[in-house]
Amino acid sequence: MTQLLFFILFTLACINWARLRRDKCDWTRSQALRQAWLAGVMIAAVQILFAIWPPPPLSLVGLLLSVVFYYSVYTLAKAMYRRADLKKAAQNPDAQTAGTGGA
Question: How many CB atoms lie within 10 A of CB 19?
């Protein structure tokens, strides 16, 4: 139960961190789409590796796969937020920049 709680909380923390840092992102719409696809593939690959070959607790391989998974969650969330910002900026012609704090 504690592992599931840790998984959910850390995933939500990565998504929140991506939301807070999206202002510093300068990806174009196509770059954000490419990053989203790459992150999605990495998330799927890590989940498949965990299912096929479950590493022992606190092993180096398990920790490495966890880091790759959470970085991919962060990247996917940031790419989705960036795409939403660019879409909103395209609908609002008065906005000079999308997701850069209006500078």
Answer: 13
